[in-house]
Design brief:
By secondary structure, this protein is of the alpha/beta class. The chain is 27% helix and 23% strand. A hairpin with a 2-residue loop joins strand 15 and strand 16. The structure holds inosinic acid and magnesium ion (MG).
């Protein structure tokens, strides 16, 4: 029997791995009928360079930039005003925003959620109301998309979308696996599941997942309240050359070397088939910075090739690895 399939793009670190760029490249292939966001909300920031223009989206899937119908799935949380602002911003570039669809059972971020999130001093949240909205979802006191009259033209039912037709979906993750509410460094996590399991919770069954594409940078970054960055003067250079500032909040990201154990575990937990290693050009500009962690020990690789081989040799040999290095 014909069935829908889904390819998934997930960050294997703490967000900001360049998933937006990869999802955008995949959407541009023309292979997909739908692009889907399956977790998070406006806390995410996807930066895409298209025809020389920088476009930053927070909630809308990148399919809209390619004329592909795009879905905000039920695993997401929506700030209605921000969504409408983002649609207007995208119309300004000439994109057809009528292609947007919203799961009727996605949850709605209210002003109270934002006010509550704005009081956060411990986690370093993006203050977008994300956590409090998921809290209400689980407490069964939340508002859903189908309760909001302005969203009516966009609403869809995920079962009908996925199972009453045979289509190809691209699922675009938000945040990264190590910000996952279950598997991340709790409480320094986001309030949703960020791995491949979250795709199933948007209505796909496990047989429909075709390829899982993991995305990392060749160094690590984290933004939030916990102390993450150790001292190395090269980290400041990496931040400037790599422009490591939050796309949503503008906060400087904390920097560290690539952690291969973290990446290895994330690849296993998500069944990664393909791994993209981003920003090789950034690391290349910082002299003798071919460092990475194995088993919490820094390994200094003598050159770029040694660094690449070290990564490939550490991970499951069945994972197809691609290094990318175009600056922005
Ligand atoms: P929240 O998702 O706004 O509740 O923030 C929780 C933690 O996740 C904070 O450390 C945020 O900086 C981090 N975070 C949330 N969204 C992103 C993202 O898209 N990229 C990187 N970090 C994020
Ligand atoms: Mg981001």
């Amino acid at each position: 029997m014909e069935t829908s399939i889904v390819d998934v793009v997930i960050g294997m670190q703490y967000g900001d791995e360049g998933k937006g760029k990869i999802a955008n490249q995949m959407a541009a292939s023309g292979e997909y009928d739908y692009v889907l966001r399956f977790n998070g909300g406006g806390n995410a920031g996807h930066t895409i360079y298209l025809n020389g223009e920088k476009i930053v989206t927070h909630l809308v899937p990148c399919g809209l930039l390619h004329g592909i119908p795009s879905v905000i799935g039920n695993g997401c949380v929506i700030n209605t005003q921000k969504l409408f602002d983002e649609l207007e911003y995208l119309r300004g570039f000439g994109f057809d925003t009528s292609l947007l669809k919203i799961a009727e059972n996605a949850h709605i971020i209210t002003q109270e959620h934002i006010d509550e999130d704005s009081k956060d001093t411990t986690i370093g949240t993006t203050r977008t109301g994300n956590g409090p909205c998921y809290k209400d979802k689980v407490a069964r006191t939340g508002l859903r998309a189908k309760d909001i009259p302005e969203l009516e033209p966009y609403l869809i039912d995920m079962h009908t979308l996925i199972h009453c037709q045979s289509k190809k979906f691209l699922a675009e993750g938000a945040q990264g696996y190590w910000l996952d509410v279950d598997f991340g460094d709790y409480p320094y996590v986001t309030s949703s599941n960020t791995g491949v399991g979250a795709v199933l919770n948007n209505g796909f069954n496990y047989k429909q997942v075709r390829n899982v594409v993991g995305v990392i940078k060749c160094y690590s970054t984290y933004v939030g309240a916990k102390g993450y960055q150790k001292y190395d003067e090269r980290f400041e250079m990496l931040r400037e050359i790599g422009q490591e500032y939050g796309a949503t909040t503008g906060r400087p990201r904390q920097i560290d070397w690539l952690d291969l154990d973290e990446v290895n575990e994330a690849c296993k937990m998500n069944g990664v088939d393909f791994l993209i290693v981003n920003k090789m050009d950034v690391l290349r500009q910082v002299n003798s910075a071919w460092n990475l962690y194995e088993d919490q020990m820094i390994v200094n690789c003598s050159d770029e090739n040694t660094f690449m081989n070290r990564i490939a040799n550490y991970l499951d040999p069945l994972i197809d690895i691609e290094f990318q290095g175009q600056l922005h």
